[in-house]
Amino acid sequence: MAATDKIFQHGTLGLLVPGLFDGTITAGELLTHGDTGIGTLDGLNGEVIIINGHAYQAREDGQVREIAADETLPFASVHFEKPDISAPIEATNQADFETQVVRDYRLRNVFAAIRIDGTFKTIKTRVAPRQQPPYKTLVQATATQPEFSGEHVQGTIVGYYAPQLFQGATVGGFHLHFLSQDHQLGGHLLGFEIEQAELKIQHFADFQVHLPIDNEAYLQEEFDNETIDHAINKAER
Amino acid sequence: MAATDKIFQHGTLGLLVPGLFDGTITAGELLTHGDTGIGTLDGLNGEVIIINGHAYQAREDGQVREIAADETLPFASVHFEKPDISAPIEATNQADFETQVVRDYRLRNVFAAIRIDGTFKTIKTRVAPRQQPPYKTLVQATATQPEFSGEHVQGTIVGYYAPQLFQGATVGGFHLHFLSQDHQLGGHLLGFEIEQAELKIQHFADFQVHLPIDNEAYLQEEFDNETIDHAINKAER
Description:
Chain A has helices spanning 13-16, 27-30, 94-104, 138-141, 216-220, 225-235; strands at residues 6-10, 25-26, 36-40, 47-51, 54-58, 64-66, 72-73, 75-79, 85-88, 111-126, 147-162, 173-180, 186-204, 206-210. By secondary structure, chain A is of the alpha+beta class. Chains A, B: Belongs to the alpha-acetolactate decarboxylase family.
């Protein structure tokens, strides 16, 4: 009974901003809500890429490993894959791609899952470094991050487009991660040039946010919307 | 199979701000997602109060009527009622009530449904006046609104508390409507003094937003988050 008509998100991007990095959902439970998606692990430990029902962690040391069902995440977005658009990509770089996709597939005010499978002339990622409590803020924790790059890499970009109105609850605009086919390269996508690739888009009418309302730190935090907006623009672009 | 663990919202408060007042969900479909809630009708036509599976419209002329299944709404929030808190209310006015409820039931970062049944020493409401296309903005449309008041009125307050992070998607903070037991008085709640009343609260981990992604005006609109924030604070408080 996989519902393909909504995005399920655990937590908010906003809760990462003051440093609420403790995992509050298990990977096992998360995967009951989707087979594809992105996130981060307990302690802001790397970048999570979920493809075909398997969750992978791109670590700050450059390694990629599969995540066990009992590991936890403070933030993740998932959906069950059933694209409604499948097309070759003409844009060669990320900036052109984002502009074209929003225009051609009328994403401006719509949630959508983005998946690109192909060969990339160049690809560049970064990986959030694992934090220890007491946690720094997101901006402090991500001030220096290891970056990784490759040439002529086969792999998959996966992530989401969200309307700007939902900035704070999630990342307004694009939020994309990458995993190479050989699992030698992964992380938060910083840029790419395409050799040849196929784009899949899945539009959603529904966005469901699941909040960690039993987590004491979450209940107590005094969030500030302006701080969250600025921090997301700094840490997640 | 009524899911009592989430709020279902059709549309966003944000889409009302530039004047997207056309109804995009039928009352019949809305009631499949909840038996309790609030909203507005096509054309910003009054205030909607949903109690015990019936949807009512408080009109600008002061009349209250039940809404038919084929009438449409641009914005509404509903849930299936199953309160986890039931308590007498000690606060006598709305400002004290809101402060106490957020503190006592730890709502700050949590979605919750609020229901108050009782007798009100005074109660004051306002009702948005019906608009005709081409629509004005929300602030323009609600610049002058009829207000209604009563003394020693029996009735029900129903609505929601939402975390401030979701301002724009919905109203951050409280958004409450009122309907008297005799259906002679209703609308958006502006203030009350309690004689005796019982409070019911239902905490939610999940908030699901359903967007009108087949509506041309919605797809085309260029929303601005700051404008939306200011307009909600002006029109919905």
